[in-house]
What does this fold into?
Amino acid sequence: MLTKAEQTRGLAAGAASLLLIGLFVTLPTIALLITAPDGLGQALFDDYTLSILRFTLLQAVLSTLLSVALALPVALSLARRSRFPGRIWIIRLMAVPMGLPVLIGALGLIGIFGRQGVLNDLLTSAGLQNPVSIYGLTGILVAHVFFNLPLAARLMLAGLERLPPESWRLAASLGMSSWSVFRFVERPALATVIPGAAGLIFMLCATSFTLVLVLGGGPAATTLEVAIYQSLRFDFDPPRAVMLALLQIAITAVILLCLSRFATAENTGAGEGRAPTRYDGQGPTALAWDTLVILLATLFLLLPLASILVSGLRADLGRLVSMPAFGQAALTSLAIALTASLLSLLMAIGIIKARSAIAGRRPRDRSLTAFSAGLAGLSSLVLLVPPVVLGTGWFLLIRSFGPVTPFAPLLIAAINALMALPFVMRVLEPAVAIHLARTQRLSASLGITGWPRLWLIDWPGLRRPLFMALSFAMALSLGDLGAVALFGSNELTTLPWLIYSRLGSYRTHDADGLALILGVICLILTALGTVGHKEKQ
Amino acid sequence: MRTFLAFSLTALAVLAQPLMATAADKKTLTVYTYESFVADWGPGPKVKEAFEKTCDCTLNFVAVADGVALLTRLKLEGASSEADVALGLDTNLIQEAKDTGLFAPHGIDTSAAKVPGGFKDDVFVPFDYGHFAVIYDSEAIKTPPTSLKDLVEGDPSQKIVIQDPRTSTPGLGLLLWVKSVYGDKAPEAWAKLKTRILTVTPGWSEAYGLFTKGEAPMVLSYVTSPAYHMMEEKTERYKAATFAEGHYIQIEVSGMLKATTNKALAEQFLAFTLSPQFQTIIPTTNWMMPAAATADPLPEAFGKLIQPSNTFLMSPEEVAKNRQAFIREWLSAMSMN
It folds into this structure.
């Protein structure tokens, strides 16, 4: 039970987060609509809009289904094999695709699945006439699975690891078959994670831009995001861009709403906070299956990354790292990523506090319940607001008061924070719910509140998910190019921006080298973010 | 948590510091341009050094992603822009740029400028140009296409990567090129060419990246692209294909903003872009052809480049009027199965 004061504070924190996000999204939208030149904003619903809408949804639904379905066995196997050699590094590796600039990831994939890729070389030497093509819908799907399977697997794994050890002990003492373990222990735990993860991946794929264009093959594979980008960047038609963005949000919201109906009540098992020891899956068949699944998934992830490594090593890494431009860009990237991820954590904590305050209230108040649902929905939907729309709107807004450049780093950080919010929420919210269920009554009965509680109870219990959320958010912000594209200038350069500008002037080797460095930085960050993992084992 | 936040905000403030500091003693000329112009290896640093020697001023470059982003940025900022000069629009964009009413006539002598097709304008000064060309990998293709018709009707298994005309200037260039050669028959040409296109990328970087990875033996780029490979990578592997009909040209221009408070200095800079000093810097940093005489002869590699016999260039007015319609036509031709 939360005290009255805690409830009020929680609601205030949620309201503050809501206000912050709301203002950050609506202000620039209004600015865009006001400053629109006359005579623009052509009819929104024509055949063309309908056809891109159809393709956007088709590829996003397929990508989501594939990513989640393929991530499921990976997460189950990883959870069962708590002592798999190199397990922690496999999990860390899974954060790298998130931080990779999309184009670099795409080039890595092409190095493996492309026409000149390793796979086709193998197939051709095996005598196959028609090698696989990574272009078209297949290419989009392979790339989306590469980027999102690790994300889904990590979220599912976190869900499984939150299960109390008693569950495993009980399952073992009842002598449950692995099917029963799946049915009664794993499935309920996964059911709380999968709809959220699927929703997140659906949004990521629905707003995919570079991947769809590079691998899609042509105009037949066009998404709403492309249309939004084009109407702002090429036509400077803000009303059309805003309308398309609203269309994107509305349609996706409907789909997410349907998806959320599958979510079951959150499982708040009361455990002791110890790392679970698994007793099941000791047989040779299970071991062989898990090993195969983990190896295949690792290979699928590792091969494109290895291709980035190979081309990266061909660059003159020493010269790249010693360039002043590199130091400056790395510092800027890290400062922005740190600010963005902390902002994102603060907003998420505000929302979570409000939601748990509302959940703890008896009797239930209908408007508060709606507020709680609204908070959850909003924190996801911000992912659909195209950064180019936000950036342009904010640019206009600040412009009317003075120069924009001094605010550019903060704006990029804020946009990145918003982009990371759904990820941070997915990691933190279930962890906080379980933590509160475990500790709430005890601390209340012992009278521990305020700072001592934060330090003695909350910090040790929530340190791991906090660091994990932080590393997720930082990796995301480090790899982002969308927000910086508008504000970036010769004086404000991030690492992805540096990579793109090298590519834009024939320096492909430099770009490969920088991409490798960025990937390594992401890997180091997630290693730091999951240090707690190792301590517990 | 709060200390962390305070720390990173301080770090951001420190990063923003140099942006806010302005040199008060000297006049500053602010030139908006695109990113690769100001990169370490681009023309920017050398241009800055050379111009500052002649003007007793500070030349301040502000760079955005590309020419299109540059125009969008100017539209966003309107009359309150800090830009004195915009450098790096191309002729396909200048009608739109004029329609914003933000640019002033340059009023300088542009007789030194000699670009194919004889582009002249009272608002924009050309500073370099490049013909678009299909670049091919001579290790993968022995008989490159010799005309646009040859490209359209050639072996569909030999793929080309092109850029999207909705999001990039080379993509728009190819669109106008096909339109110039095929006219009303352009949709049929695109429908045929479609089978040869491996993929359509959002910008030049993505397309060229796929090409150098060996994914496709051909890419749409510039006649001057092989010069980069010859001079910086010492290889003649990548070549431009000469097209019998001729090549579409991209002319890069700069112009002065009406709202500039440094009119004399801006005019001085525009005149400087046509000086041998500036023009000598362009070929080996921007990898484009100089628009006026250079101080030294062009490097040897440039002598090995193909010489387009005929130049296509649609008038800026025609492009501005028809771009939407052409793109729609392209979209429907390309998405048909």
Summary: Chain A touches chain B through 71 residues (CB under 8 Å). Chain A has a mean pLDDT of 83. The first helix of chain A runs from residue 4 to 34.
